[in-house]
Design goal:
Number of domains: 2
Distance between the termini: 56 Å
CATH architecture of the largest domain: 3-Layer(bba) Sandwich
Number of strands: 26
Structural class: alpha/beta
CATH superfamily of the largest domain: FAD/NAD(P)-binding domain
């Protein structure tokens, strides 16, 4: 009888899961078109935009044109549409019917998909580290590990934001798409191990950024289904919003007859390659707002004629405004990882528990993405060889041929080698910075990006400290009890994995020089890059582009540092925050936000 009841419970859970995921798997297009009627393909532009047409032209005009429907762009659009007409132009498609985006179990597959229509667009920095940028409505919230946290209070003060409005804007996001995770056993063992090695106190489940160990929020609900920034569009005024997908903006248009160049609109191409123009209304407060991310926004500015003179001249781009700081100060938080073997199966988990140390290092963990035969042969979730992760080959030697050789060798390793998970250590606020440069004038192509990982010795020292801490975490009794692995088993796995070039603890963990080389050779990314359009150099404190009218930037390209352990929560909040701020300045109390 007990077995029958247990089976019935499992069947009920499966049925609930199936019903909850049905809109994504069946008639996905119809589902989102019903819930989000304002989302259209770019080729439908003229027909879908007639309600916003100005009286004296055939062209549509809008109060706000947002370039990029990503992590900041979606909450920004939803907010501004409460009072004004808004056009969002997103170069990617919708996330709703994409199973690689929608489910935690497929997280690694979305990142490893390098096809032209993938939600993830790979790029390789000149440092040799393979990276990714989003190409989908909802932006990075569609392809990341889902972890949600607020920024530390120091960050909010440093950027000069209104703390009261910040504390109103975070909950607006959290109530709609953020969940408390069911803590995986792996994450529980990681939590106990962090506390065991002194990353204390334990702060429980919290969105706040506090020193110690905590459990944060997540985009994944209890069914493992992802909720993205695109879902924030459900709170928009549908009569005032148009969202075009597969709409690739090529440049911003300016009126240069006045003292300062004034944004007038944009040129974009649709999914068929046809060109379109969209314009702002004649109101001086109408704006083009760039929310293309830390890679896309500096690139868009330069392709539109705003940037360093040498950059524009080399590609014969007509200069609208010279600004030598566009594309400068690019930074990415370097990450290194340590593999943790187990002698027991572990469930898939992405980031749930984090350790916020006082030495400028963040500790995180993931597990279980090497369990299925598909994962064994293909990829490793957050640390996948196929997306350039996990290779101890120095970054600039990570050629496609080297990666394929890695994959081939990995297939020869026993199944047990890839049970377990990873301890991740990430440098907070790296001092090392780089730059972004155009390669050509094709917006579809990635620009050249340099991050200069570990160029500053302090960054390298913090990595050494982080790897030492990761080793202590793994050797903690809480992890060894959970994984049922003793130290000799770890050594055996190390020896076996060396020829497969898998990032593991170096054998001489007390040798500083060895650890420094390990950090340099095994550096990877967790996709928290930022900068390129800093406040005071490219934009003013209100994020308006210096020296222009009606042009603003709302995304992580304006950041000098990545906020909190993971930036997406603050970028989501930023979209809502700036939307409310703009509305209140234009309308006062009449904005009703």
């Amino acid at each position: 009888m007990a077995a029958f009841v247990g089976a019935l419970k499992k069947l009920s859970i499966c049925l609930i899961l199936w019903l909850n995921t049905l809109p994504f798997l069946q008639g996905g297009s119809d589902y989102y078109e019903f819930k989000y009627p304002f989302i259209k393909r770019a080729s439908s532009f003229w027909a879908s935009s007639s309600s916003f047409s100005s009286s004296n032209t055939d062209e549509a005009s809008y109060d706000y044109i947002i370039v990029g429907g990503g992590t900041a762009g979606c909450p920004l659009a939803a907010t501004l549409s409460q009072n004004f007409s808004v056009l969002v132009l997103e170069r990617g498609g919708v996330p709703f019917s994409n199973v690689n985006v929608s489910f935690l179990s497929n997280f690694h597959i979305a990142l490893a998909d390098t096809s032209p229509t993938s939600a993830s667009q790979p790029f390789v920095s000149t440092d040799g580290v393979i990276n990714a940028r989003a190409r989908v409505l909802g932006g990075g919230t569609c392809i990341n590990a889902g972890f949600y946290t607020r920024a530390n209070s120091g960050f909010i003060r440093r950027v000069g934001w209104d703390e009261r409005l910040v504390n109103e804007s975070y909950p607006w996001v959290e109530k709609q798409i953020i969940h408390q995770p069911k803590l995986a056993q792996w994450q529980g063992a990681f939590k106990d191990s962090l506390l065991d090695v002194g990353v204390s106190p334990y702060n429980g489940f919290t969105y706040d950024h506090i020193h110690g160990t905590k459990v944060g929020g997540t985009l994944f609900d209890r069914f493992g289904r992802r909720h993205t920034a695109a879902e924030l569009l459900a709170s928009a005024n549908p009569k005032m919003l148009t969202v075009l997908v597969y709409a690739t903006v090529q440049k911003v248009l300016f009126d240069q007859t006045g003292r300062r160049p004034m944004a007038m609109g944009v040129i974009f191409k649709d999914e068929n390659g046809n060109q379109h123009q969209a314009f702002l209304t004649n109101n001086r407060r109408s704006e083009v707002i760039l929310s293309c991310g830390a890679i896309g926004t500096p690139q868009m500015l330069m392709l539109s004629g705003i940037g360093p003179k040498a950059e524009l001249d080399k590609l014969n781009i007509s200069m609208v405004l010279r600004n030598e700081f566009v594309g400068k100060g690019m930074a990415d938080n370097p990450m290194n990882s340590v593999f943790v073997p187990t002698n027991r199966p572990v469930e898939q988990s992405l980031i749930q528990t984090v350790g916020i140390t006082k030495m400028g290092v963040y500790m995180e963990s993931s597990s279980g993405f090497g369990q299925s035969q598909d994962s064994i042969r293909c990829h490793h979730g957050i640390l996948s060889a196929e997306i350039g992760q996990l290779s101890t080959i120095p970054p600039k030697q990570r050629t496609p041929e080297a990666i394929q050789a890695f994959i081939k060798r990995k297939r020869d390793l026993p199944h047990e080698a890839f049970k377990g998970g990873f301890i991740l250590e990430k440098i907070a606020r790296p001092i090392s910075t780089g730059h972004l440069n155009l390669v050509n004038t094709n917006i579809d192509d990635n620009p050249s990006v340099t991050f200069n990982y570990f160029h500053h010795p302090r960054d390298l020292q913090r990595c050494v400290d982080g790897i030492r801490m990761a080793a202590k975490v793994i050797q903690s009794k809480h992890f060894t009890n959970f994984t049922r692995c003793d130290k000799p088993t770890v050594e055996k796995l190390l020896n076996m994995s060396v020829k497969a070039n898998i990032n593991l603890i170096p054998k001489h963990t007390n040798d500083t020089k060895s650890l420094e080389q390990f950090c340099k050779d095994t550096v990877i990314t967790i996709w928290h890059y930022h900068g390129g359009c800093h406040v005071g150099k490219v934009v003013d404190p209100d994020l308006k582009v210096l020296g222009t009218n009606r042009l603003r930037i709302v995304d992580g390209s304006t950041f000098n540092e990545s906020p909190g352990t993971n930036p997406q929560g603050t970028v989501l909040m930023m979209g809502r925050y700036m939307g409310v701020k703009i509305l209140r300045r234009r309308l006062g109390k009449a904005a009703h936000v």
